[in-house]
Amino acid sequence: MEDNVSKIKDRLDIVDVISGYLKLQKAGMNFKARCPFHNEKTPSFVVSPERQVWHCFGCSKGGDMFGFVKEIEGVEFIDALRVLAAKAGIELRSFDPAVKDDKVRLYEVCESATKFFEKQFLSNAGKRALEYLQGRGVDDNTVKEFRLGFAPNDWNALGTFLRDCGYSENETVEAGLAIKRNDGSGAYDRFRSRIMFPISDLNGQVAGFTGRIFESDDKEAAKYINTPQTRIYDKGRILYGLDKAKMDIKRADQCVLVEGNMDALMSHQAGVKNVVASSGTALTPNHLTLLHRYTTNLGFCFDADQAGAMATRRGIGLALSRDFNIKVVEINDKECKDPADLVNKNSAAWSETVGQAKPVLEFYFNKAKAGFDPDSVESKKSVISALAPFLKRLTSQVERDHWLTRLAFFLRTKEEAIEADVAVAKDDLEAYAANDQKIKPGSPVASSESPVQADPLNETLLSLVMKNPALFKEELKNINTELLDLETAKAIIGLAGADFTNLGNLLKEFREKEQSYKLEFAYIDSQEKWKDKKDEELKIEFIRCLNKLEERRLRLKLEKIGFEMRAENDKEKKLALAADANKILNRLGEIQKI
Hints:
CATH architecture of the largest domain: 3-Layer(aba) Sandwich
CATH class of the largest domain: Alpha Beta
Radius of gyration: 30 Å
Largest sheet: 5 strands, antiparallel
CATH topology of the largest domain: Dna Topoisomerase Vi A Subunit, Chain: A, domain 2
Number of helices: 26
Structural class: alpha+beta
Strand order of the largest sheet: 1-2-3-4-5
Shape: globular
């Protein structure tokens, strides 16, 4: 196992690995980005090529490339190892294929099914399905790139093929490709007589499918069906086409969300590749968490029918509450109901339409103005009602005030009156929040839990030391570790008496001994924060930081004594507490003079 890890680290650079997920910007010796694990506007996520580690100084998460893949993919170490081994082109020889875990087997089942569906275009029915796709404007390269296929109108064709490939009936059912019969007499294929759209995870592994009906005798069959929830397919966490679009989304710093698989792949074919599809599934907080890794700018383009309009409103409401910048991409061609139709008619028109996207409030404001009667109170109330759910979700007060002012001017009504009506207006988007819970503006994107905030004074002290550890050799022996948090105290103890002639070995030894990257993160911070400071200035900052730590500790003690004095009835004990308080106040006075 350790040999595999070393081989991967030798072949891969952490900057290349992380830049596959985040937009990194050069910052001196390091790279910076907005942290994907908590909501922030100022980049505090740092990647060190020298140390081959990453760290967020906002939420305190950090580690090596394996730790990053574990966090961002939400997987265990063994899965992170597989992902990085694939990137490095390394075969994990220590794993016995006979004992692969269940998830790997399910991915293999889906991959085999994809190959089966692809080959069915050679059958008579498959050829007609391919001709249908070509008639919709899908070219051969797109069919190949998105691995489209066909499921024959047969109850057991896929099941038989997978059994011949060595997969059990139970594995086929668990992959969502077959359904067990109620009488217990076996299973039958879930997808029959359908054009198949494989759905891949971020690493390009097929995890599920969407099947579109084609030449079926079943008049009641659904037009589209999807793989059900499985151990590898979660419709609330996978977006169709994101594995192909993620780098284009980063380059464009925008993601266009469409409704159907055809819309996404036709957009790619037309050259607009920063597009993903929700595959008919409502947008979820987890979808937004994924997208937030690549951009905070979203464009919505759902079908113009009533269901599409409602889906757009739902998704926009959720995204606004997560601090995304939203635009609406509107197709004005009456002959085209979705992007796929528009691309088929005129591919250049789709690119122009995306470029003309309107800011979300402007879009809904213009819609609300249609048919407006300036002399009707009901008409004014209708405009406010249409815009209120979106105004409530704006996290920028400046933007909110801008739209309230515009509304006041348009409705010829006092701004205060409009703001009061917005506050009490019915919110028709609230019901679509995750798990029926209200989502507050500005809530963290990547986690329902608040990030663990690092203590600035502890971080500053350690980064000062790591700028030049030898400079503080004597001071380290005398630091009162009670002033520090546990992790910083461990690091200071580890540094006291250490050999500073080889800083690289020292950092490595501490990491292996304490299972912590604390010193390496402090070293990264120090190179940027103190790069122009002389030794004398570092010493002064060090003393100042220690004094602030002591002052904070003393003030907490003083506050505690105050509570004890108010609760104490014994006169002598009160006098003793008062004496302790005076000592603390005297010491605080001394510190403030330094």
